[in-house]
Design goal:
The structure is a single chain. The protein is of the alpha+beta class. Helix content is 19%, strand content 34%. The chain has a domain of 320 residues: 3-Layer(aba) Sandwich (Rossmann fold), CATH 3.40.50.
Length: 711
């Protein structure tokens, strides 16, 4: 039977005392983590959960446990002789200017820039492209520790006001503020308890999404329910905001508001999780009282791109796994009345947007970008020339834009900002990287290999030119494999340190991702989730079989859903990997839906409250598949105290179980960051510290001393 919360709380004093005790395993002294007699019964099967008390993250005993575990971890890391040198080297590498993609608001251009070691990128604006930029918002001045992250949410149609959000200490919770652009005066407006929202402007206000205020002590762990859409009028208190949309019968749904560029249509996107949505629309120019359903159900995905002549330009995967672009008449929204503007093709439509009276479409072909310009009636006009096989972001703007901007990057090509002249069809560099060492000394190749069931899987492999294939190259295998998210070529500053020291980086395109369309995504979700782990394990075997590396030099790494990936694979094939780095991972697959927005992942994973879902989840849940007496890889688990996306209890319980059950000399450590969250907005200083610890841990457990530790 399941023990009550009262019993758990009554054990607090005992647990606090026991947590101060230690035990030695493999030469490491770990804190004792007390076990309690807590069980759940799922469809006749009793499942023990002895570390349930670690879910109460604000409890004094849990805080004591965190302190003890961090002491053990940092004591271990402090003994690695080159750890500080790695941190210094990473600091040198990070010290170069990095820019975000500009966009225009009236006569101003906005962009972000990090001079190199600033904790947060600074938001700049300038009056025309030939003027000197000025600081618009410097997030580094908001909190002394640099943990305030600022995002621009959208400007009013007249270009007078900018809404922006502030998230603190890595939390998903945001506060929305408004600034007068010309004067840089912050208005009195302040909106709280905002999560997963934009600012969709209409006249002198905007639509946004929020939750009710959570209970004290449960801000970062309580289940988030009853998302709502409000309209906020400038100059009024949040209490006066107008409720626009809610669903009192379905607490576990997200609601997002969007207005078309001309502010004629208000679109509400409704989803019951991270996959599948429906769209409802209201014509604001006609003062319609009711919304019209233009995309019903949750079996497919759709996004409105813009209003073109009173009809909605929409991107969807309905009856098109690789996406298509259609025209929908909101007065006659039935699918039979849709007009195909750009039909599905063999390559995935990754994104589309309008600007300058044109339609820009980005495709993925084998996980790399290609971009095309179309007329608004769907006629192909030209392909946009790119520097190579990489990833493009941007290519959006306003109807009256003459030029737009985009970013191009690859594994050995730092993000470079290009401006594209719409009339002339020409691209030119706006801001190039001034990275202080060359990137041409590295090979990037794409290979294909069979997974367990014969499915062909793509993987990018990056390493220094001329390395010897001797099964001794230190290698990091990185993956994600879920939520329709694509792993495309991207530049990672810290990875240059790894490559400089003879490391191999392998990034695999697992099923469950979005690289090959919705059918690829579905092949790795729900009851097909094991395919993802099979793909990743096959990738590791490919690297060993082809002598890039060997079992003693292979590390696996992933975050969030990728942390689940690492946790599942290290429990299924522990002898294949030398090191495992599961970061902010979903480790307890039976209870993930009970915290914050975990319920939104049920459409991806399934639920333990369903018999078939329970059986599938229990079979691969990392927490529940750790076995007594197995020699697991050297493991460094990372999480953070303010992670309200994947609550740290996942990592806490996994670490406690791993320390108890693993045998041998390999360490089983957890690194718990403070005033940090799931990853977004993490200060540069914390990023460098964490990366230094991860690389130190990997090299140390492979018995390798890095040599490239200075210029």
């Amino acid at each position: 039977m399941k023990k009550s919360l009262a019993l758990l709380l009554s054990l607090t004093a005992i647990i606090c005392v026991q947590a101060q005790k230690t035990f030695n395993k493999g030469g490491i002294t770990y804190p004792v983590t007390a076990k309690t007699d807590v069980t759940d019964t799922y469809f006749g099967k009793i499942v023990a959960d002895p570390y349930r008390w670690l879910e109460y993250d604000t409890a004094a005993n849990v805080k004591s446990w965190v302190e003890a575990e961090n002491k053990t971890t940092f004591d271990y890391l402090s003994k690695i002789p080159y750890r500080e040198k790695i941190k210094n080297r990473l600091t040198q590498i990070y010290n170069y200017a990095r820019y975000g993609v500009p966009f225009r608001v009236g006569e101003y251009y906005f962009f972000t820039k990090n001079d190199g070691l600033q904790n947060q990128a600074v938001i700049y604006f300038q009056k025309g492209l030939d003027k000197e930029p000025e600081v618009f918002i410097d997030p580094n001045t908001l909190l002394a520790d640099g943990t305030a992250a600022v995002s621009l949410m959208g400007a009013s149609k007249d270009g007078k006001y900018m809404a922006y959000s502030v998230a603190k200490a890595g939390s998903d919770w945001q506060e929305i503020y408004v600034m007068d652009i010309a004067s840089k005066k912050v208005l009195d407006d302040k909106l709280e308890w905002v999560k997963f929202s934009g600012a969709a402007w209409k006249e002198n206000g905007f639509y946004y999404s929020r939750y009710d205020a959570p209970k004290d002590g449960k801000v970062f762990s309580a289940k988030n329910e009853f998302h709502k859409v409000y309209y906020h009028k400038l100059g009024t208190p949040q209490a006066a905001d107008q409720l626009i949309y809610e669903d009192t019968t379905n607490p576990n749904r997200y609601f997002g508001a969007q207005t078309t560029e001309d502010e004629r249509f208000l679109i509400i996107s409704i989803s019951s999780g991270t996959s599948g949505n429906e769209l409802q629309v209201k014509d604001l120019s006609a003062n319609d009282k009711d919304f019209i359903m233009i995309f019903p159900g949750f079996e497919a995905n759709a996004d409105v791109l813009n209003n073109v002549g009173g009809k909605l330009l929409m991107q969807t995967d309905l009856y098109a796994s690789n996406q298509r672009i259609v025209i929908v008449d909101p007065k006659h929204p039935e699918v039979s009345n849709w007009k195909n503007l750009i039909p599905e093709s063999k390559n995935l439509i990754k994104g589309a947007s309008t600007a300058g009276g044109k339609l820009f479409v980005t495709y993925l072909k084998n996980a790399t970008s290609s971009c095309y310009r179309y007329s608004l009636d769907g006629q192909l006009e030209e392909e946009i020339s790119l520097p190579g096989l990489g990833t493009v972001s941007g290519l959006s703007g306003n109807a009256d834009d003459r030029q737009i901007f985009y970013s191009y990057t690859s594994f050995n090509y730092p993000p470079t900002i290009f401006t594209y002249d719409i009339a002339g069809g020409k691209s030119s560099v706006w801001k190039a990287s001034n990275l202080k060492f060359g990137t041409d000394d590295y090979d990037v190749k794409q290979v294909f290999f069979p997974s367990k069931d014969g499915t062909k899987i793509s993987m990018f492999i990056i390493h220094a030119k001329g390395i010897t294939m001797n099964r001794k190259n230190p290698t990091i295998l990185y993956g994600y494999g879920g939520f329709n998210i694509s792993q495309t070529p991207s530049f990672n500053t810290s990875r240059m340190f790894w490559l400089q020291n003879g490391g191999v980086l392998a990034v695999v395109n697992l099923r469950g991702g979005g690289e090959y369309g919705e059918s690829w995504h579905k092949a790795g979700m729900l009851n097909n989730k094991q395919n993802v782990f099979d793909d990743f394990i096959a990738a590791g075997k490919y690297l060993c079989d082809n002598e890039y590396t060997g079992n003693d030099y292979l590390a696996i790494q992933g975050g969030s859903n990728g942390g689940l990936l690492v946790g599942a694979c290290m429990t299924q094939e522990p002898a294949l990997f030398k090191v495992a780095i599961p970061q902010v991972g979903v480790m307890d697959m039976l209870r993930f839906h009970k915290f914050t927005v975990g319920w939104g992942w049920v459409v991806e994973y399934g639920s333990s409250e369903d018999p078939e879902g329970f059986s599938n989840l229990y079979n691969y849940s990392p927490l529940h598949n750790l076995k007594e007496g197995v020699n697991y890889p050297a493991t460094l688990i990372t999480t953070a105290d303010h992670d309200d996306r994947v609550v740290p209890a996942h990592s806490f319980k996994f670490a406690a179980t791993l320390q108890d059950k693993t045998k041998g000399l390999n360490p089983a450590l957890i690194r718990i960051d403070v005033r940090a969250g799931h990853g977004a907005g993490k200060p540069t200083s914390k990023v460098i510290e964490e990366q230094a610890d991860i690389y130190s841990f990997i090299f140390y457990n492979m018995g390798i001393t890095p040599v490239a530790l200075d210029w």
